[in-house]
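Morning!

This is the sequence you dropped in the shared folder:
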Amino acid sequence: MIDEQGKLRKEIYEIFQIVRSYGGVLATGHVSLEEAVLVCRKAREYGVTTVLTHPEWRRTRVPREVQRELAETGVRIEKNYANVEDGDCSLEEMAETIRLVGPGNVFLSTDRGQAGKELPVLCMRKFLEGLLKLGFSAEDLRNMVQRVPGELVGEG
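The structure's back. Tokens below.
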């Protein structure tokens, strides 16, 4: 993804053009911090709708302040209950980051569905109940499970 000079390879810019031309969404996936941040910044410069995926996961951890800076450019930040359940962070830590980034820049998911794990719907229920207990409003939750994802797919 990054060349010897630490810059994005030309193929990434081609991907930006394709994603933008189809009205798609570019998600960072399982890449390094350096790659994720560079892709997000450049994609937004190119007008590409962009998602920073699971920034609390131990392999793709992105510092809170960087998440906030990316959100200020229009990047949407994914928060996965799996990261809480698997011990990558506490729900309280994730809640602090959501407050810093702003619920209007976040969408919630579970990253579940694997064999041997709880059903996604049960994990989402735990996620929402936990965030309510930590002081998030019903409107905050609505933003993170309905409005922000809707905007990403052109329904907002």
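Headline: The chain has one domain: 10-152.

More detail when I'm at my desk.
O.
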